[in-house]
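Repro:
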Amino acid sequence: MHPMVSTGIDVALLVFWAFLLFFVCLIFYLRREDRREGYPLEDEATGRLDTPGGVLHTASTKSFLLPFGHGTVTAPTQGRESVDIAARRIERSTGAPYAPTGDPLADGIGPAAWANRAKRPDLDMEGHPRIVPLSGAIGYSIARGDADLSGWPVVGADGAVAGHVSELWIDKADRLIRYIQIEDAGAPLLAPMMMAKVDRRRSRVVIDALNAAQFAGVPRLEATDQITLYEEERVQAYFGGGYLYANAGRQEPFL
């Protein structure tokens, strides 16, 4: 027999209604929290912005304290402002894809899109830049038996030579090579190591994301000894976009 609070109400009923109230409040909280970025929604066909959404609109602004004295960041940081992109719909129907009208690798279209990350390097647990040139990383070297790739040609998707390896950039925290620096007279030109294939038999590095001539358009670094999160985002996006936009044949269907 359940203990009674009053006639018709017992403890089990009170617990049930308390749980139900908690659950409803939790749903409201989660729906408000997940709308911190990207809202209000945009109509796919017209681009018109929808209304904010009443009680389920975003919660109050939160501030997050960043490590190593980098201040604070707030969320949401911005709304859903209209942005002009160098692309147009191939049809007027809802959900129709966009076709680039300029250079998609430089304009940040589709797989070449990027986010505006912080203009500072990624840091290790001690607060030092984690991605640095191997030549400046004390205590780090290429494992015995592995080629250091210095002077090896870098070949693009078209089989032409885009340049030669002049330096390797390592991730001191993860103990691996992150980027290949390609010899160039200007600012450092980096290519992601994860997109490279080391051809030991022919002593060359193949990066088929881009054609050789397109390497000249890779976003460059401001410093010679570090890469910022902002620069990493653009370098990776440029190469990633090449798998679709490097040549016209990659944009055609397989079937």
